[in-house]
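#struct-queue
[09:14] JT: dropping the first one here, sequence first, then the structure tokens:
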Amino acid sequence: MNKISGVFDLDMSIQYLKGVGPAKSILFNNMNIHTVKDLLEHFPRSYEDRTKLKNINEFIDQEYVLFIGRVTSVIKTQKVRKNLSIHTTFVADDTGICMLNWFNQNYLKNKINVSNEYLFYGKVTYEYGRYVVDNPQIYDLKDLHKVRGIYPIYTLTNGITQNYIFKLISTIYQNNFLFEELFSDEFRKKYDLYEIDRAVKNIHFPENFGIIEYARKRLIFQELFLLQLALLIIKNNCLSVTKVSKYTNTNIEDFLSILPFKLTNAQDKVMNEIMSDLLSDKNMNRLVQGDVGSGKTIIAALAMYVVVKNGYQASMMAPTTILANQHYLELKKYFDVFNVRTAIITSSTTKKQKEDINLKLRNHEIDIIFGTHSLIEDNIEFANLGMVVTDEQHRFGVEQRVKLNNKGKSVEVLIMTATPIPRTLALMLYADLDLSIIDELPPGRKLIKTYAVDKSYEHRINEFIKKQISEGRQAYVVCPLVEENEELNMQSVIELANRYKENEFKDLKVEFLHGKMKNKEKDAIMTKFKEGEINILVSTTVIEVGVNVPNATIMIIENADRFGLAALHQLRGRVGRGQHQSYCILKSNNKSTQALERLKIMEKSNSGFEIAEKDLELRGPGDFFGIRQHGLPEFKLANLLKDVNILKMAGQASKELIANDKNLEKIENKKIREELFNKFGEQLRNIGT
């Protein structure tokens, strides 16, 4: 979709579209609409059915209706409070009477005349024995032919209305243009797809509801097809690297014998998959996905142990100094038993220490190196790097990971994540990786008791925190924002921490933590918390992926309705790591049904995967799973829960295309290749080389 004929260019700035201009273009930019193409790809989120005229006696409570009514009374105005006036009148047809209300619309007195008939559209409620429509739209009867139809409903921002977007897109379509078609007639016929022009036009201006489904299918297929095609190419490029490392010694029984626990069946299965990769003639490129506490770290340790036994070095990169230190200290005690030489390098490591570590790495006097971003510095060199383990990989950019992988000749890649992602979505987002799932928690692990409450429980919660701390425990309190934002009615981390220090918990040690603090400050606070020198840590989600503090048993989350379920689950996973019963308390004053429903899910389930499925169902994909962090675009139209059949079809089509034309060099695939580079140019820069 790059070119259109006529007066418009898809890449033209939205600012120069007639009726927009500089001021409105800023509003569009806030909606991530920068070009004419972005506007046309700002697809409707739903539709209003105005195809049928209804009589008043046919109204159904809570439905939207288009109807003709004769005004039977003058508009009466009631001033409810300073900034709220309600304007009321009654209308009738041959079948009944309906009450109409408008809020703060004084101009209506001059627009509506008693005894005249008008066309109305709005939502019906049935209350006190009569039908009521609040804020109905009003049209002249002569406009009936224009008003009847299926109306697209777009996601908006302040200053941009439905009618405004509708008119802009209509203007573009009045100047005949054509999208450039990516797919051949044969390809479209095979997968039963509309032409691109027909699909885009009918998604905005559908003739009937049936045609919307065909239009959606084409557009969803295209975005999922291109995404999976790009990921397959990336994967194939990884597989095409000649594997020079050889693995023969893969016995891990001696390592397993010193562990104070037995691997779960799920861990055994994943370990077998890793062993199979190592023994194959292709480099491993595997994602291990497991819930918080499922035992991913020990799997990484076993994999690195095998690599070292075969004469290679391994590295493990974590997103924070705290997490890198945690992995290092936790695993070093096992590696020391077998004289596996370990080291750690972070931003806290001095220049002299780094020089010493680097020399030892080059001389193969270090077998396993732990660290943060410091591992990818240019002067870090390995004698024989065989494996790279990346923890919480979505915290790193693609280039950072590639830079570390390139420090060896043919590196085995193992990526770990505790971010719960439904399998359907994971298979697509990580199509460039093989997927392993640890879907079982170690036996004996206590479930975290979770409660969703409103602010009326404040005093009881504070007393509960004091009781737990008097028994030697510690607590996290999480707030969404660093600075006060009255509009969202959230207390800042700093203000809440200060209030706790001065009032509720003045006899306890309270500290705060947020993302704007320097790394050294954050590390110092977390170290104190881990060592029990802090009773209550007030924080933003910076502790979402963090240190293991077995003594912390309480997680309080303020304004919990503002978080996604996956984020809540990650935060909850900071507790429940020791022998004591742990608790997660979700505080919210949001009375909406959906907000309460989502928080109740947290009360009922401790499974990250189950919660992720529910969150996907309730919120849609959006940027929910860190798609942007993965380096991929946000979906325009696809809903991976509802569109799983299209996802499968697009996946199959992408595999078949790559099998027949590995680098998309055939003439019929030229436009597909061009579109891929437009979307994923940075990731695909090595395609065909």
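[09:21] JT: and here's the second one, same format:
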Amino acid sequence: MRDIPVGNGSLLVNFDDKYQIRDFYFPHVGQENHSDGFPFHFGIWVDGEFSWVYSEDWIRTLDYIPDTLVTQVALENGRLGVRIECNDFVAQRDDVYLRRVIVTNQRESVRDLRIFLHQDFRIYENKIGDTAYYDPDTLALIHYKRHRYFLINTLPHFNEVATGRKAFRHSEGTWRDAEDGELHGGTITEGSVDSTIGIRSHLGPGNRFEFYYWIAAGTSHKEVSRLNRHVIDTKPSVLLERAIGHGKAWLTDSSTDFLDLSPAVAELYRRSLLIITTQIDKGGAIIAANDHDVTDRATDHYSYLWPRDGAFVANALDVAGYHAYSRQFFSLCSKIVHERGYFLQKYNPDGSVGSGWHAYWDKWGRRPLYPIQEDETALILWALWEHQRLTGDADFTRGLYRDLVVKCADFMVDFRDPETGLPKPSWNLWEDRRGVHTFTCSTVVGGLRAAACFARLVDDTDRAEIYGSAANKVVSGMRDRLYSTQVGRFLRGLLTNGDDSLTPDATVDASLFGIFYFGCFDVDDEVVASTMKAIETHLADQTGIGGVARFENDSYMRISETVTGNAWFICTLWLAEYYIARARSASDLAPAREILEWVTKFAMPSGVLAEQIDPLTGGPVSVSPLTWSHSTFVASVQSYLAKLAALSH
């Protein structure tokens, strides 16, 4: 899990709950993790005693300075009699990670203090062929390989340095060298290398020692040298002040009246907006999550752009008033959309096609398959029209009409069964089954109606008629084929059987909220009410922790067989969207408000939201932060406030 990310769109640094740097992404958010998930150690030697801050004798508080992306970390060790306070941030315009460290002597005696900072770079995500050396030109420590350079420095300048082998034969690394209070390693090492620097001070009773530590990231020695000189000339303290000011100023660009919502909800809303920005690459890719720990169980990670997640996040930023991020995202989408008019499962942060498990070929039927989740294509158009509706930026969206809107909408029109009017089988949003899914159909309706609106905007009346008619036929097909009179609600879908037959799937799934959310059926329609009632009945957690599971008997990272599945923040907030949509008075909004409060209760102390919640402990499960969790919270808060304002008038 990752508790406090800091980043600027090209450099992302993640910390775990022990306050260790665990992920160091550059030059893309989520791509090229130069620590490969291994920890950078941070420790202190005082009067002959040593401790790394990950050990159990430290009390750690990991948070942010309010309304900023500057951390506020407190580390206290009663055995050593020291307190350490840290502020971490990434410079907004320069690829430099900085940390302010303040050490306080809590004893009534003069202390001999030595602080050690360890770097475990695995450049280009492997440990082979790296070099670490002390550079007399910059008076700094440098790690490099090919086109990646990382310069480490401090102010005041560090007193000692060691480079050495790590993860090779019996060598654990130079961090072990620090534990006797002295560094003995060399000034240059190649291969599988790490490094440690040490800073010394004498502290009187109650006195404090302050210093700054930074890592500059670049593609050449010249670049990191320039960044190092910039930090020294500008002064790290000034860069810290700028980082604090930038966060607060950025949030004021879209001020929100939170009406009757609690201060805790308002605080998490602002925190969510800031955290979302750390997960967005400067090239427009909105990354699902950057948490390397997941690779231990999946041999892959979440550091990809899923167009579905991206569309929901872009929409949340639009409703919150931060349209620049959405424009970058949609521009990227127009470049990566398949020539046939659909989006593939996922993409790397630089826009290249990511890893996937959706087959292109049916080996039993001996025929090609579309390796897609059609909701991802539909949601891009839905979110793009919402962007147009909220911004009125017709010049921008017109520029995407031919290459994105028409291409995707034409595909969705053609990718339908001529008899039922429904989309042909594809993978569902959870990526675990193929068929004709109610959620996918709902998004296709939203996407086609968005395309019809775009067509009318550019006076393309023929296409407007085609897209609108196709959307209406999908709705009719949903009522005829996906609503079950037998169970009295919508089915999750019709599953493929390896041939042309389809089998009804009556599993209750939280994604069924799409039937009203994308305008297929009125929220007051009985078919909606009965379906959402099933979600309340079958998916709401009954252990006392609360929350809503994805679907019945969800096995993904399942904690306990006593519940139908772990609660997901997004699924719980979808239920809040239903309560908001059906509300006819301010008092009707109470259940939605309770859900917003529930989310704040189970956020990490730093405000980070994971993907799931442990139904037994309430702790985070899977990756954190999940960008989609934060964006859904932002969107739901905005939905709540808009509805309350409308009802008040």
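[09:30] RK: nice, looked through the second one.
[09:31] RK: The first strand starts at residue 6 and ends at 7.
[09:31] JT: good to know. The chain has 17 helices and 30 strands.
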